[in-house]
Amino acid sequence: MARRHRLNFNKRRGNSRALGLATVLFIMALTIAPPIKHYFTQRAQISALKSQVESNNAALEQARKDLLLWRDPEYIKSQARERLHFVLPGERQYIVTDSSGQYTQETGTTVASKIPDGQPWYARMIASITETRNQ
Q1: pLDDT higher for 103 or 19?
Q2: Is the residue at 16 inside a domain?
Q3: Rounded to 10 degrees, what is the CA torsion of 114, 116, 119, 120?
Q4: Structural domains counted in the chain
Q5: Segments forming the whole domain that contains residue 128
Q6: How large is the average pLDDT for residues 111-133?
Q7: Which DSSP string corresponds to 44-76?
C-alpha cells in the first residue's frame, strides 16, 4: 500500500484562529475609532467653551462693577471733569499743555500761507491740493 502522508491540520487550525481573532479585533478597531475620535474632539470643544464661559463671566462681573460706579453721581462728575474737561458754574479751568515753560507760537504751514484769501472754498481747496502736489 501506498503510504499516505497525514497532514497536520492542528497547526493550520491554530493559525486560522489567530488570523480570525486578528480580523475580529481589526474590524472592532475600525468600528470603534470614529466614535472615539468624536469623543475627544467634543471634549476639546467642551473645555474651550468652559474657558470662554469663565472669561465671559469675568467680563460680566467687571461690567457690573463699572455699572455700580457709574450709578454714583460723584463718580460721574469726576469722570466728566477728567475726560470731558467740564467745570461747575463759577469755576475756572486751566489746562497746562507744555510743562517746559516755553511758549511756542504755531505758524501756518507753507501750503496754507500760499493759498490766496477771499476766494470761494472750492477754489482754496483746489489750490491747496495743487500746492501740496508741487511740494
Answers
A1: 19
A2: no
A3: 10
A4: 1
A5: 110-135
A6: 78
A7: HHHHHHHHHHHHHHHHHHHHHHHHHHHTSHHHH
- C-alpha cell recorded at residue 122: 472750492
Predicted confidence (pLDDT) at residue 107 exceeds the cutoff of 80? no
Cα separations in angstroms, 43 against 13, 38, 111: 44, 8, 65
Cell numbers found for residue 73: 453721581
Find all residues with CB under 8 Å of 114, minimum gap 6, and list them.
127, 131
Distance CA 16, CA 9 (A): 10
Residue 67 in any domain: the answer is no
d(CA 135, CA 115): 14
- Looking at the domain assignment, is residue 115 inside a domain? yes
Reported as a single tens digit per residue, the pLDDT across 39-54 is 999 999 999 999 999 9
